[in-house]
C-alpha cells in the first residue's frame, strides 16, 4: 500500500487521520492519504503572500521552459508518489483502480494534461487572447499603440477537485504560468493526477513552496473556497449552490450539453449517428461536455432509435480491458440511486427508454463490489418531461422534438452546444443565444474542445483584472 503525505507548500506532512483508498473491484487497499484540518489550511494560506511575490519575480520564459520539462517528466519519468515511485503506466493503473474509470480512459485523459503542460504557451495565449506573455512579467503590454494592464486578484488559487476524470486537471494546470501559487484539494479517490503533476513541476525546477496538495474532508473544501482569493470547484447543482453568486469561485458543475438540429438538417440525421455516439458516450459519458440531450424539429423517434441501436451494444468489460467503453461505479449505491431516479421519472407519462427496449435487459448491472449503468436513450414527448433536461454520470441522452423557432428559448443553460445546420439565420440566433457557453457550428461533437479557448470560465480573467494605466513619456517602470 502506498502512503501519500499532504504537501504543505514544500513541507511533506503525514497525519494521524488518513483516508484509505481501495481497489474498486477487489476491495484491497491501494493507498493511504494523509488528511489536513481546516486550521492547517488557514495557516498555510497565510504564507502565500510571500510565495506569490517570489513566484512573480521569476521570468515568464523561465517558467514556460520548466512547464515543457514537466510535461516530459509527467509522461515519461518515474516520479515520487509518497513512499513509492511510479512510472506513467503505474500511475494510470492506480488511478483506474481507485476511481473505477477504465485504464484506457485514464490513459487518454491523462494525456490531455500532458498536452496542456507541453503546449503551455499556446494555452496561455488562448486564455489571454493573444496578450504578449512578457506582460506577465511587467503587468502591462502595449500593442498597436494600445495599453493593456492587469493586476492579480489573489495570492493563491485553490482548486477543489473531483474524482471522475483526470482530464479536468488541465483546467488548473496553467495557474503557475500565471505566476499565482497553487493549492489543490484532490478528490478522495483521485490523488494520483494532482500529486504527479506537482512532482513533475518540482523535478522541472519550480520551487515546491509555490504548491500545496491538501487532502481534506468536505469542511476543509469549504475552508479553501472561503479563504482563497480565487478558486475553482467541481460538483453538481446542489453542491455548488452556496457558491453560485460568489465571484471568487469558478464553478464547474452540471453541463446540460446538447446537440441541436436545424430544420434543414434534421432529415439527414443518419449522417450524424457516429457524432451522436461520441458526444454522448466518449469518456464513459461522465464529462460536463458530453451531450445529455438531442433537440430536433422533427424525426425525434428515428433519431432516438438510431442512437439507441449504436449504444445498446455497449457492455461492461474488465477495468483493464483496452476495449472498455463504460465506467464502473466504485460505489454501487450511486448507480442504484441514479437508476431508481430514472425509473421513477419514467412513471410520468410521455417518455420511453428506447435502449432498454432494444437491449432487452435492465439498465443497472451489478458485478460483485461494483455496478454499471448501461447507456440510455430516453425519447421525451415534450421539453417539460422530468427526463428531458437531466444529466447523469453515464452515457445518457434524451431526445426532444421542438420547433426551430422555439428551441433556443427552451433549452436553458447549456455548457456546450453543437448546432447542426447551414441556415444562416438559425446560426446567427445561436451565436446570440445567452444560455450557451461554448458553441460548435457544424458536425463537431460537444466534447471536441480546443485548449486555446476555455469552455467554462477563463482562468486568466479569474486570476487577473484589467486596469487603466498611463505611463509618462520617458518614464520606464522597473519590474
- Rg calculated over all Cα atoms: 23 Å
The biggest sheet, with number of strands, parallel, antiparallel or mixed sense and barrel status, is:
7 strands, mixed
CATH architectural type of the largest domain: 3-Layer(aba) Sandwich
Helix count equals 17
| Secondary structure: number of strands | 24
Outline, from the CA principal axes? globular
Classified by CATH, the class of the largest domain is: Alpha Beta
Oligomer: single chain
CATH superfamily of the largest domain: Aldehyde Dehydrogenase, Chain A, domain 1
Q: How much β-strand is present in the residues? A: 15-25%
Order of strands across the widest beta sheet?
Answer: 17-20-21-16-15-22-23
- As for the number of domains, it is 2
**Helicity range of the residues?**
25-40%
* Average of pLDDT: 94
What is the straight-line distance between the termini? 48 Å
* Poorly predicted residue ranges: none
CATH topology of the largest domain, by name, is Aldehyde Dehydrogenase, Chain A, domain 1
User: Helices and strands: which structural class?
Assistant: alpha/beta
Overall description:
- It comes from Limnoglobus roseus.
- Belongs to the aldehyde dehydrogenase family.
- Keywords: NAD, Oxidoreductase.
- With 479 residues, the protein is of the alpha/beta class.
- It folds into 2 domains: 2-253 and 456-467, Aldehyde Dehydrogenase, Chain A, domain 1 (3-Layer(aba) Sandwich); 257-441, Aldehyde Dehydrogenase, Chain A, domain 2, CATH 3.40.309.
- Helix content is 34%, strand content 22%.
- The protein has 17 helices and 24 strands.
- The strands form 7 sheets. It has a 7-stranded mixed β-sheet with strand order 17-20-21-16-15-22-23, with helices on both faces. The chain has a 5-stranded parallel β-sheet with strand order 12-11-10-13-14, with helices on both faces.
- β11, α8 (192-204) and β12 form a beta-alpha-beta unit.
- α1 (38-45) runs parallel beside α9 (218-227), α3 packs antiparallel against α5 (103-118) and α4 packs across α5 (103-118).
- The longest helix has 17 residues, at 60-76.
Amino acid at each position: 500500500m502506498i502512503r501519500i503525505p499532504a504537501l504543505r507548500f514544500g513541507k511533506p506532512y503525514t497525519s494521524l487521520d488518513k483516508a484509505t483508498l481501495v481497489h474498486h473491484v477487489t476491495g484491497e487497499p491501494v493507498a493511504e492519504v494523509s488528511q489536513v484540518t481546516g486550521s492547517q489550511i488557514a495557516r498555510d494560506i497565510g504564507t502565500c503572500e510571500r510565495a506569490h511575490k517570489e513566484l512573480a519575480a521569476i521570468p515568464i520564459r523561465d517558467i514556460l521552459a520548466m512547464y515543457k520539462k514537466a510535461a516530459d517528466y509527467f509522461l515519461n519519468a518515474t516520479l515520487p508518489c509518497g513512499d513509492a515511485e511510479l512510472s506513467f503506466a503505474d500511475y494510470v493503473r492506480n488511478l483506474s483502480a481507485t476511481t473505477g474509470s477504465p485504464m484506457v480512459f485514464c490513459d487518454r485523459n491523462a494525456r490531455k494534461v500532458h498536452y496542456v503542460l507541453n503546449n503551455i504557451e499556446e494555452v496561455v495565449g488562448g486564455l489571454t487572447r493573444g496578450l504578449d506573455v512578457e506582460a506577465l512579467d511587467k503587468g502591462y503590454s502595449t500593442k498597436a499603440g494600445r495599453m493593456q494592464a492587469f493586476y492579480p486578484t489573489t495570492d493563491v488559487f485553490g482548486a477543489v477537485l473531483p474524482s471522475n476524470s483526470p482530464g479536468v486537471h488541465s483546467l488548473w494546470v496553467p495557474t503557475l504560468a500565471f505566476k499565482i501559487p497553487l493549492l489543490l484539494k484532490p478528490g478522495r479517490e483521485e490523488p494520483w493526477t494532482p500529486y504527479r503533476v506537482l512532482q513533475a513541476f518540482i523535478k522541472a525546477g519550480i520551487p515546491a513552496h509555490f504548491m500545496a496538495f491538501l487532502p481534506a474532508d468536505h469542511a476543509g473544501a469549504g475552508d479553501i473556497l472561503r479563504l482563497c482569493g480565487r478558486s475553482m470547484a467541481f460538483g453538481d447543482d446542489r453542491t455548488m449552490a452556496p457558491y453560485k453568486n460568489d465571484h471568487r469561485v469558478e464553478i464547474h458543475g452540471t453541463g446540460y450539453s446538447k446537440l441541436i438540429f436545424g430544420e434543414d438538417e434534421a432529415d439527414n440525421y443518419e449522417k450524424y449517428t457516429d457524432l451522436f455516439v461520441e458526444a454522448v458516450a466518449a469518456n464513459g459519458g461522465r464529462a460536463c461536455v458530453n451531450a445529455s440531450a438531442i433537440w430536433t424539429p422533427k424525426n425525434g423517434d428515428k433519431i432516438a432509435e438510431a442512437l439507441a441501436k449504436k449504444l445498446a451494444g455497449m457492455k461492461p468489460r474488465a477495468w483493464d480491458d483496452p476495449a472498455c467503453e463504460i465506467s464502473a461505479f466504485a460505489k454501487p449505491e450511486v448507480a442504484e440511486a441514479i437508476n431508481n431516479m430514472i425509473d421513477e421519472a419514467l412513471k410520468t407519462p410521455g417518455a420511453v427508454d428506447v435502449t432498454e427496449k432494444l437491449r432487452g435487459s435492465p439498465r443497472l448491472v451489478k458485478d460483485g463490489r461494483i455496478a454499471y449503468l448501461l447507456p440510455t436513450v430516453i425519447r421525451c414527448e415534450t421539453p417539460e418531461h422530468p427526463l428531458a433536461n437531466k444529466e447523469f454520470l453515464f452515457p445518457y441522452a434524451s431526445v426532444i422534438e421542438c420547433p426551430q423557432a422555439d428551441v433556443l428559448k427552451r433549452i436553458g443553460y447549456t455548457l456546450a452546444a453543437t448546432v447542426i445546420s447551414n441556415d444562416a439565420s438559425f446560426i446567427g440566433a445561436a451565436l446570440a443565444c445567452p444560455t450557451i457557453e461554448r458553441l460548435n457550428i457544424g458536425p463537431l461533437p460537444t466534447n471536441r474542445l480546443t485548449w486555446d479557448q476555455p469552455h467554462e470560465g477563463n482562468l486568466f480573467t479569474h486570476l487577473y483584472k484589467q486596469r487603466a494605466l498611463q505611463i509618462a513619456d520617458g518614464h520606464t517602470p522597473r519590474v
